[in-house]
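Lecture 7, part B: from sequences to assemblies.

Below are the input chains for today's worked example.
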Amino acid sequence: GQNIDQPTEMTATEGAIVQINCTYQTSGFNGLFWYQQHAGEAPTFLSYNVLDGLEEKGRFSSFLSRSKGYSYLLLKELQMKDSASYLCAVRDQNAGNMLTFGGGTRLMVKP
Amino acid sequence: NAGVTQTPKFRILKIGQSMTLQCTQDMNHNYMYWYRQDPGMGLKLIYYSVGAGITDKGEVPNGYNVSRSTTEDFPLRLELAAPSQTSVYFCASSYPTSGANTGELFFGEGSRLTVL
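Predicted structure of the full complex, as C-alpha cells:
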C-alpha cells in the first residue's frame, strides 16, 4: 500500500513564496505528480518528477528526493488566483502504475 | 478538442436507484480511470482500464461496475445507490508511461452525485 501525507491547509500572502510539502511511502516508486484543483473544478496537471532534483516551470517548481520519500511544490510571486487545492500523487509500478493521491493541501492566498 | 467529457454534471438519486455515469475521451488514450472525491479529500481510484475489453478494480470498487467496449468510452454504473456513494466523480484518461511521456492524467469536469 501507499501512504501520502501533505498539510491540510496553508495560508500565504499575495506576492510571497509558499512551499507545500508531500511525504510518501511506496514500494515501487515510479513518478510523482502535482495537480492544482480550484473549488468545484477538475484537477489540472502542474508538474512531474521521477528523478531527484528540481523541475522549474515559470512561477512553479517541484522538488523530489526519492531517498527521503519527499517532494515539495514551490509557488513564487503568489497571486490571488493561486488559491486552490494542491494534490500530490505518486505512481507505483507495483500497483499497476496507478496514481494514488494525497488528501490535498488547500492554499488560501490573502491580499 | 473536447478532451474528457462526462455526463451528467449533477444528479440526485434515491436510495436503491441505479444509474450510469458516462465518460468519453477523444485523445485516443489507452488508459481510462474513474475516481471519487469526497468533500475536502483527495481522489480515490474506483476502477481503471488499460485498453478496450480490459478493466480492473481500484482502491474502492464496491458498489460500482464498469465496462470498456471501445477506446473512447468508459461508463461507470451504480447498481443500488447508497448514501455513502454521495460524492464527486471524476473520469480521467492518459497514455501509458513511456519515454518522454509522463502518463499524466487528463480529467473530465466531474459529476456531482447525491444519494438521498
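Note for the exam: Chain B has no helices and eleven strands. Keep this in mind when comparing with the next example.
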